[in-house]
Specification:
CATH superfamily of one domain: Type I PLP-dependent aspartate aminotransferase-like (Major domain)
Helix content: 25-40%
CATH architecture of one domain: 3-Layer(aba) Sandwich
Bound molecules: pyridoxal-5'-phosphate
CATH topology of one domain: Aspartate Aminotransferase, domain 2
Distance between the termini: 61 Å
Number of helices: 11
CATH class of one domain: Alpha Beta
Order of helices and strands: HHHHEHEHEHEHEHEHEH
Structural class: alpha/beta
């Protein structure tokens, strides 16, 4: 297998040839780094240029060639890339030094290492022969977007830290919400104070809404009642739900995973849900969260959102819809029916890195914020 040969980094005038990087004695030379043996002999310390534009241009091209060759080879000779990595656990430790190298290496050496040591441990998710979990999802557009993002290195934690980041996120998530025909209350321009925000992963999205729902109910009933809070999912719900609840302090024994079977195509039976809620209420528990799924991970089941939404509404319970992979398909008019009933949900998430050609990871989450709780928040915070 050859990766990225003959394209500049292997012809001797690459990273090691004295244009700003390693020289013979293993230190940094000349233009851009520390030269000689540093301050000890009075040598001048030159300013570091971590994002030297010419270096970026030169090495960026080499890296793009390396990646483009990878995709070409993946396509042309899939037999050289077993989808399932053939290495044994711990294989990499024997191939790498015990501690970080003290001397820099050339980009050519690094990419050779990637070919020899890293590639064997890669599961080729983007291979045309990959059929596990979700279909290969990256794309040139997604890749270029990531490149731009890495290049600008935008920090977007408030509007001020990069206004375009916040504004673009809000606008694009409104576009996506419209493509999915989500109800108006999930749009930033809709009534109320809802909208979409990108989370790192589907697991994070579920955690965020469990915490939001928990805070909402605790504001109403009082913090001391945390041990009484109860949540509902099904035995097909993704494991991130249980994890989110545990992180959120919900007692393990208060996580109800309702049994499903083939009679409902492994969807959550609304009758079992209502029965469980009534039973919990009678015992003094506080039902506050239902996690429904459109496209369960292990069985592709779709929970019936219309009756589940009616139950959530009747008992004032937060309904979240996790449509991590299948939600993407609902953009197509012929599949939109799978999220019919979303009107009664409080939140909805899907993973654009699954079927929407975004690179790992991009998990849009939409939340409907109710005026009543906003006012409550303002009064008590
Ligand atoms: N929910 C469902 C239904 C999923 O299929 C997955 C991913 O496999 C997740 C949640 C978790 O998503 P992520 O891997 O982005 O955390």
């Amino acid at each position: 297998m050859e990766f990225g040969t003959g394209n500049g980094y292997s012809n001797g005038n690459g990273y090691t040839n004295g244009n700003g990087h390693t020289n013979g004695n293993g230190n940094y030379n000349g233009n851009g780094h520390v030269n000689g043996n540093g301050k000890a002999n009075g040598a001048k310390v030159v300013k570091m240029k971590p994002m030297d534009s010419e270096l970026l241009r030169e090495q960026g091209h080499i890296m793009v060639d390396f990646i483009a060759d990878y995709y070409k080879n993946l396509q042309d000779s899939p037999q050289d890339f077993p989808v399932l990595s053939q290495v044994q656990p711990g294989y990499l430790r024997d191939m790498l030094p015990d501690s970080a190298p003290e001397r820099p290496e050339s980009l050519k050496e690094l990419l050779d290492d990637v070919s020899k040591k890293i590639m064997p441990g890669i599961t080729h998710w983007q291979s045309p022969s990959y059929f596990a979990y979700y279909a290969s999802s990256t794309s040139v557009a997604g890749f270029l977007g990531e490149m731009l993002n890495a290049g600008l290195s935008v920090v977007g934690f408030t509007w001020l830290t990069s206004p375009a980041a916040t504004e673009l996120e809000i606008i694009v998530l409104d576009w996506l919400a419209k493509l999915l025909q989500l109800p108006d209350h999930f749009l930033s321009t809709g009534k109320g104070n809802g909208g979409g925000v990108i989370q790192g992963t589907g697991c994070e999205a579920v955690l965020v809404v469990v915490l939001a729902a928990r805070d909402r109910i605790l504001k109403k009933v009082g913090k001391t009642l945390l041990p009484q809070l109860v949540v509902y999912g099904s035995d097909q719900t993704h494991s991130s739900f249980r994890k989110a609840c545990l992180i959120g302090g919900i007692h393990e024994e208060n996580i109800r995973l309702l049994k499903t079977d083939s009679s409902t195509n492994y969807g959550m039976p609304p009758e079992s849900l209502e029965e469980a809620i009534s039973h919990d209420l009678a015992k003094g528990f506080i039902p506050f969260f239902i996690c429904a799924t459109v496209g369960t991970t292990s069985s592709a089941a779709v929970d019936p959102l219309v009756p589940l939404g009616n139950i959530a509404k009747k008992y004032g319970i937060w309904l979240h819809v996790d449509a991590a992979y299948a939600g993407n398909a609902c953009i197509c008019p012929e599949y939109r029916k799978f999220i019919d009933g979303i009107e009664n949900a409080d939140s909805f998430n899907m993973n654009a890195h699954k079927w929407l050609f975004a690179n790992q990871t991009c998990s849009p989450l939409w939340v409907k914020v109710c005026w009543f709780y906003l006012i409550l928040n303002l009064l008590f915070n």
